[in-house]
Amino acid sequence: MYTMAPQRCIFLPYLLLISLSFFLPCYSTTSPGESESYVRPGYDSRMINDEAYIHNSINRRTRFGRLLASVKTVSVNDFGAKGDGSDDTQAFKNAWQAACSSSAAATLLVPKKKYLVKPIRFAGPCKAALTVQIYGTIEASANRAYYKEDGRHWLLFDSVQNLQVKGGGTIDGNGNTWWENSCKINKALPCKYAPTALTFYRCKNIIVKNLKIQHAQQIHLSFEKSTNVQASRLTVTSPQTSPNTDGIHVTDTQNIQISSCVIGTGDDCISIVSGSQKVKATGITCGPGHGISIGSLGSGNSKAFVSDVLVNGAKLYGTQNGLRIKTWQGGSGSVSNIKFLNVQMNNVDNPIIIDQSYCDQDKPCKEKGSSVQVKDVIYQNIQGTSASDVAINFSCSKEFPCEGIVLQNVNLKRGAVAAAAKASCSNVKLSETGVVAPHCP
After folding, report:
1. What is the DSSP string of 368-407?
2. In the annotation, is 267 catalytic?
3. The one catalytic residue among 267, 268, 349, 355
4. pLDDT digits (tens, 9 = 90+) for 173-189
């Protein structure tokens, strides 16, 4: 009799483990839609008797539950946004404050409606990584009086890190009123700045992708004093007649990649100005517009530096310029280590141009002795047609000639009939390799 008691003690925990095996599927990690009887490949039911396996499974489920609980989604609708044409500015501000102050990763949701908003500053730093998911349309108010406090920005992200802005929605600057009141449209009016539609200022680790940005008051998208930026799959559009509506503007920003974007505006598709380094643009479709530009640089006798720019794989259609570098007389500094590779020109007015005497003012610019140095620029595999007789124009400074200019496999013809184009080259030190047409005289 006394020998049987120990055996009952041995079987009791075993029976408890067997019982647990019937209840564990209720807490399984099967994904939604999977049957509870589903057995994953490689699964061995005998493992259920292993206490370590049970312990680890419970830990994994606990960690997974905590991860889900740690992601916070904030909708602008939850804070009173209507999306019915009324002013939703305060709702956007309150929703941002809630998302930005979250100690866990958060998503700010803009549902599929049209929201009318005044100028907004989305200020950081935020406590954790943040995603702005735009499914609907954010439209600017057309009332210019709302911009008296800050006439340079509409949607401004300031000092934010680890931010994604995406979702397939639309950012609409509603710029008609601004264009009508531009000095470039109405010469009787004084020249004033207009707001940039979307600005990232002093930001770090930024992803902007899969958005449509249209009808900006002036510049569509600007990255300023920022680092580690990815901008991809963007469609940027405004009428060809809209003044100063640069597509993507890069200033004093380092390590930025712009890829797979379609841009058609009334000014530069991409403009890169002073303080920018390690700029990479790939898979760009541009037109209408003023092309892909570095500059202008050195205005007002200022010092400017741009370096390490790569444009690889671009198609330009009917643009005023193709690949342009423009600097003012009187400035100083340098543009260096620039590569333009694999670019197709289609009826472009000035396919390749360097202008060290740029002058964008009503009165003629006075000739000055100093200039921003342009050096180490490569044009490789540039093909297509020029809408003007001069397909290559190097207008460089006498005191600071363009140096280290390389043309490699460049073939540009005049118009649809593919007649011979011309090159105008002054004060430039260059080399040619492969097939190059036209030649510098």
Report:
1. -S-B-EEEEEEEEEEEEEESSSEEEEEE--SSS-EEEEEE
2. yes
3. 267
4. 999 999 999 999 999 99
